[in-house]
Amino acid sequence: MNRFEAAARALRTAAPDELLDAVRVVLTERYQALDVDLFMADYGLTVLQAVSGVPLRTPEPLPVHAGPAGRAFGAQEPYCEERRDGRARLHLPVSVRGDRLGVLSVTLPSGDTARACEAELAELADVLGREVLVAERDTDLYLQARRRDRLTLAAEMQWQLLPGRSCSRPEYDLGAQLEPAYAIYGDNFDWSVKADHLMLYVTNGMGEGIEASLLTNLAINALRNARRAGLSIADQAALADQAVYAHYRGRCYLSVLMFDFDLTTGRASVVDAGSPQLLRLRGGEVERVDFDAQLPLGMFEETDYVAQEFQVQPGDRLLFVSDGVHEVASPKGEPYGEQALTRAIQSTRLLPAAEVPRALLRELTGHRGEAAVAEDDALVVCLDWRGRPGRA
């Protein structure tokens, strides 16, 4: 058994809360590692927080957008930091199918040693990422490491409902972020992919706190139930509408924009039920895309929904934003508006999809004022469409 296989096996057989201990032992014994740390990106995507594996030894949080570890996280490529004492600190992105979890940082005796084993250790970081996701079913260790502050109960429910923050396939890249990360209410996103289809939902729930979160949980699970039964998106919307109305009798309802993309052709079926906004960046130009608006889910009993057709082209970037983005006001009461949003989309056009939502939300914070408290959720989802390889 070679050293990589031994390391991967050690991770697969480790107890859920002992993954860091297992990777420390195997990297020390087989790769001459002098020090090993695992950092997880916090919910707000502002810092990389250390997973505490050794008592009385927890490294300080590192910035997500600066420094060697932040560089590896942002570029999603290994970064070697050579030190004056001759040692090298290798920072390796920990990701699963495009979902950025954090960074594995390994100190090695020299830069030559780091370069010699960089490829193997990068692959091992991917194995670690998968094991972390599996381990989260049985331990809170890695979820706790993602918290810079305490989550509200509503935010706890919302984060547990999400599929991830990013996803990558040959046909597309997806990235999403919610703010305020530690106190979100009812905004949400969900996606699911199979051989030839990507289904994407962007929701904007009414209300605040736990009531908004309960409403969103009911609607998203109703949509998933219908999707997993093989229903079309129009029928998914109708079933979720019935579920929400049956419980709230029209007192509460939820806006949702639903897409079913054909990965082969780029054609999509769309249901716009009181939706968040969609903006498209194509050929350097930003334009708002409007659909025929239909009633939000749960507003009335037995609403019928009709899907529209929409075509996406290779190179398109789609931005989905909730009203917490385009309606947020400055200290002087000026709304953020479509013009400012267009400028922000243009300024982030070179960033990968996974980084765009956080960058746009930073612009939003600047407009609102750093000291101002957000009065509503803000949600941004970015979809970069490449289309199926081999198709013109």
UniProtKB/TrEMBL annotation:
Keywords for this protein: Hydrolase
Transmembrane segment boundaries: none
Domain of life: Bacteria
An example molecular function term from Gene Ontology annotations: phosphatase activity
InterPro entries attached to this UniProt entry: Bact_Sigma-Reg, PPM-type-like_dom_sf, PPM-type_phosphatase-like_dom
Xref: SUPFAM superfamilies: PP2C-like
Signal peptide: none
Protein name: Phosphatase
